[in-house]
Amino acid sequence: MDAAHFDRLTTTFATRGTRRALTRLLLSVPLLGGLDALLGAAPDIAAIDDDHGSSHRRRRRKTRHTHRRHTHRHTTHRHNHKTTPTRPNPVGCTPESVAQTCAGKCARVANTCGTIIDCGPCACGTCAACTSCNPNTGTCDAAFEEQACGSPGQVCQAGICACKEGSCADGQHCDGTACVCDDQSCATGCCDDAGTCHIDDNTACGIGGGVCISCTGQGQTCGGGVTPGQCGCTSQGCGSQTCGSVVDNCGNTIPCAGCAGCCAGSTCQPGTADTACGVGGTCNDCTRGRGQTWGGGVTPTPGVCGCIPVPTTLTVPATGGSRGQELPLSATLREAPSEAPVPGQPIIFTGQAGTQFFRVTGTTDATGTAVVVLELGGNAANYAVSGVFAGTPCYGASTGTAVLTVT
Asked: Is residue 49 domain-resident?
């Protein structure tokens, strides 16, 4: 029996199988040779019960394993450092790149999430960002290609940490080394201290890549006025209010207009009542004037207080006094024929008191009487004096005369 048949036979006996498989094996061996092989193999078959077959298999596996262990592979330094963390990153934590973790460091270093990262051997001293120690040459070689490094937008490129086209955030551009925000990249906005471009941002407002300011005034927004990129406020007006004034959304007091009738304070009235009469202005109270009504008068005008004039009489009583004396001169204005006093009306007094000519005005009181004071002078004589009421839309004109005696 050759070695191949022997190995196959011992394996079959050492492994559980079907009787059909064992039959096929015995038939594949010549009858006498198979019998001799079977008889000669008795000690080995008996060893199955002692698990010697299993030991044999373990020895063969061990031999194969030992052979592989001593087979060496000669590889070059590739900077593919082990980045598998010793524990997973905490849930919700996004770690920095390996290039950022290992910049200027070696051996095992914790990243921003607390995970331990292998940053390579320390045989080269301190290696700059985007490089790693090559223990075969003792030099810091380029590594971490395309990984984030340094400031935002900078990535490792052939051992150099710099920005490149397309790596900068919106509103920034690459100046060859770093991402910058200026009037080229942020023409319609402003740049904050971190180099971020803000456009129409109420907390960071500006234009042309300039300095950002915060819109803090009442109602102010960025571009809210007439100039884009500047803090401003556009008034929303008075809303539905058409009379008086309001403090608008910008904090300014503005007048309100648009009332079709008349305004009583901040309230728009139709303007058609005797107590609130007018058109496009302040309401008048017609009842304050004698006989006035809305649209009244000889020639009625809608929205205007008017009345039919009431006849009046003006009585000037005779008076007199000595030269050098101050003398009161009076006149009383009444309605006719009711003789009701007419208060608050001007009366003009004219005449001569000695050598002095006078023209003075007095106003009627609640009794309808107006009083002026004259200083008498000149020769003793009798002088004519008069009082004149010019009239109003509601009161007719009237005059009165009297004699003033100077002694």
From this structure: yes
Residue positions counted in the chain: 407
| Two tokens, residue 311 | 């006849």
* Residues whose CB is less than 8 angstroms from the CB of residue 397 and which lie 6 or more positions away in sequence, other chains included: 312, 388, 389, 390, 391
Q: How many domains does the chain have?
A: 3
- 352 lies in the same domain as 369: yes
Write out pLDDT tens, residues 89-111: 778 899 999 999 999 999 999 99
**φ, ψ dihedrals at 290, nearest 5°:** -60, 115
User: Does pLDDT of 88 surpass 80?
Assistant: no
Spatial distance between the Cα atoms of 163 and 181, rounded to a whole number of angstroms: 13
- Among 163, 162, 102, residue whose Cα is nearest residue 132: 102
Which candidate, 377, 380, 397, places its Cα nearest to that of 389?
Answer: 397
pTM across the whole model: 0.47
Q: Which domain holds residue 318?
A: 312-406
Q: Say if 362 falls within a structural domain.
A: yes
Two tokens, residue 52: 């010697």
For 286, which DSSP code?
G
